[in-house]
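Hi there,

I know you've been waiting on this one. I reran it after we fixed the sequence typo, so this is the corrected version. Both the input and the resulting structure follow.
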Amino acid sequence: QRWSITCLDGLPNMKFIFQIIVNLLEELEEMLSKDGKQHYVYYIKEALKENVQSYLTEAKWIKEEYIPTIEEQTKVSYITIGLKLSLAAGYACMGDVITDDSFKWLFTDPPLVNACALVSRIIDDIATHKREQAEKHVASTIECYMKQFDASEQEAYESLNKKVEDGWKELNREFMITCKDINVPIAMRVLNFARTLGVIYTDRDNFTDPGIELINHIKALFVDDIVT
């Protein structure tokens, strides 16, 4: 919370990665200062603090072997999916289309962002469920659902897949509504986050073990020639 490297003297393992993050944000601050927008880094720091605080909550749950309710889990896991942090970092680098109001909108947790978090979190948890629960891992949406509703694993999958289906509809609806009030590129960043996770996590965990479909997507973007 204090954003001070000296606070980590007793946590050497964390100090290394924190120093890297500090250096990275200082470089970004210097880059943005050329356009008088160095204060945008403040919003990234605030999003990162929120993320780390939620990671700490998850770590406590793991240690206590606690399975939260869906409501408890949602408040934390919608943050640890990294959506707000990714958006804040992306917005800072989008040039004149972004203003302070863009960040203020983001930090109100608007319906568009919440819909994106729902879809992203559940498809992530479904795809990674079996691998993560074979390890010592925080209870996923599946475990929380099974405990709260006394459901089987298959029943949890079916119910949560339906929730994802409805979530995509809600996400598209909120996108259209949001674009009436803010610039389309700002809203599009949110939509594209869910789309990206859809590519990575639909049907399998392509993040941990990339399949040929994801490999072909990456090659098409960065390796293959563009056909004109």
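Quick highlight: The longest helix spans residues 153-178.

Best,
R. S.
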